[in-house]
Design a protein that fits this description.
Elements lengths: L2 H16 L15 H7 L7 H21 L4 E3 L5 H10 L3 H9 L4 H12 L8 E7 L4 H18 L3 E6 L3
Helix pairs in contact: 1-3, 1-4, 1-6, 1-7, 6-7
Length: about 170
């Protein structure tokens, strides 16, 4: 499995969870809450986590698009189709999904994993943050984005890292 795809999926889950209404309140959804789980489980009994993932991703994408704009830019929640498909495929790995779900037990676990994925902290920057042009090694941009999100969640600000499409 493509490690960038797994990183995208895991970052989406972590940031999606940490940005929810019951956490940082960046978007009004609560797809990873106990209430949502109880509501969604009878409907999506075999694909509950995927439904939560897709719901949180859509809520986060809407907020990111409103803050950054749409066009020739990408952010964690809106990527080129190949990366979108690969990250969705990563969720077919049951062991991977179990590991990611365990990180959602509480805010501290999710933040700790986000910090691990970041490697190093980025500066606190509210609002949209350009990380330059998208490179062939998208893993580096994902790591930087994780750093911006980690800094934002720990300092109580909203940030929206993005990259521009290569011209």
């Amino acid at each position: 499995m493509n490690s960038a795809a797994k990183t995208i999926a895991e970052l989406r889950v972590l940031v999606g969870y940490l940005g929810e209404k019951s956490q940082a309140n960046w978007w009004g959804s609560e797809f990873f809450s106990a209430t949502a789980t109880a509501f969604l489980a009878p409907i999506f009994n075999r694909s509950l986590f995927l439904a939560q993932y897709q719901g949180a991703t859509a809520a986060a994408a809407k907020v990111h698009d409103e803050a950054i704009g749409v066009g020739r830019i990408y952010h964690l929640f809106r990527l080129p189709i190949g990366l979108e498909q690969a990250s969705a495929d990563a969720l077919n790995d049951a062991a991977f999904v179990q590991t990611v779900q365990a990180r959602l037990a509480n805010r501290d676990l999710a933040l700790a994993r986000l910090a691990e994925l970041a490697g190093k902290a980025e500066f606190k920057s509210p609002g949209p943050v350009s990380m330059g042009q998208m490179s062939q090694d998208f893993k580096a941009e994902l790591q930087r984005a994780a750093g911006f999100y980690c800094a934002a969640f720990t300092s109580g600000i909203q940030t929206f890292p993005y990259v521009r499409e290569v011209e």
